[in-house]
Write a structure and sequence with these properties.
271 residues, alpha+beta, L-fuculose-1-phosphate Aldolase, 9-stranded mixed beta sheet, 9 strands, globular
């Protein structure tokens, strides 16, 4: 009996340890061979991590990924590491089941890599994903006040910013994390065809057809949330972009967003 309970205790400790470090209890290592990728893609992904940390969109726990340019069934993302610390050596290739492909020994992986995997599986138009724990966005996830576009730069928030309620999938005993494919799929389905989905009590997810655009959208999701909270504090009705304005403005911003991307990269290089 003592040996039985010792084994159970060790198993419980192992489960707790793997959750804390971000490694799934099941093996996260794939037997597949990594697909070659241009160094520019890696460098841009490193820059995206650093930019989003510098812009205070990502804390020590958020993450950004990009679909593998030559293997659409795989994606690239930093290992379980604060985004501000990510280097080219920390980038890992994953398949859409969340398995790491040829990662270095000793690497651990973000528990919530399934957010990225299931969105890439569901949305062929998405080539980059950001998950943040933005404290300025969470109030809109936890209240009945919908996050809506305040100005032309955040027009991508139209027509809708849905809210994912994890209790509908995982029940009331959830730890709030998207820790498997089932939860990742439910989140991706809630996102639908939109650019942003909020996560009640957790944060948000932003998607885009390219890495520079997803960085742009992640930054201006936070900017819009701050502006909307300021407008609510000011009192009175708020005039948001109407659907036609938002659609027109979004087309323009999709064309000119690289100006912000190049600025942020330059500032990063100057530091």
């Amino acid at each position: 009996m003592n040996a039985f309970y010792s084994t159970r205790a060790l198993s419980a400790l192992f489960l707790m340890f793997t959750v804390v470090i971000g490694q799934s209890p099941a093996s996260a290592q794939s037997s597949q061979i990594p697909t070659p990728v241009d160094q520019t893609v890696i460098d841009d992904l490193v820059a995206a991590n650093r930019i989003l940390a510098d812009q205070q969109v990502l804390d020590a726990y958020g993450h950004v990924s990009v679909r593998h340019p030559s293997n659409p069934q795989h994606f690239l993302m930093g290992r379980n590491l604060a985004p501000a610390l990510v280097t080219a050596d920390d980038i890992v290739e994953y398949d859409l089941d969340g398995n790491a492909v040829g990662s270095k020994p000793g690497f651990t992986h973000f528990l919530e890599r399934f957010i990225h995997a299931e969105i890439y599986r569901l949305r062929s138009d998405v080539n980059s994903v950001v998950h943040s724990h933005s404290t300025v966005v969470i109030p809109f996830a936890n209240t009945q006040t919908q996050l809506r576009p305040m100005f032309h730069v955040s027009s991508f928030l139209a027509p809708n910013v849905p809210v994912f309620e994890i209790r509908k999938v995982a029940g009331s005993m959830s730890n709030m994390l998207i820790s498997d494919g089932k939860l990742g799929k439910a989140l991706a389905e809630t996102l639908g065809a939109n650019s942003v989905v909020l996560m009640r009590g957790h944060g948000d997810v932003i998607v885009a057809p390219s890495l520079p655009l997803v960085v742009f959208r992640a930054v201006y999701t936070d900017v819009n949330a701050r502006m909307q909270l300021q407008a609510i504090t000011a009192g009175g009705p708020i005039t948001f972009l109407d659907p036609e304005e938002a659609a027109s403005a979004n087309k323009l911003m999709d064309q000119v967003h690289t100006r912000a991307w190049e600025l942020w990269k330059r500032k990063l290089a100057d530091k």
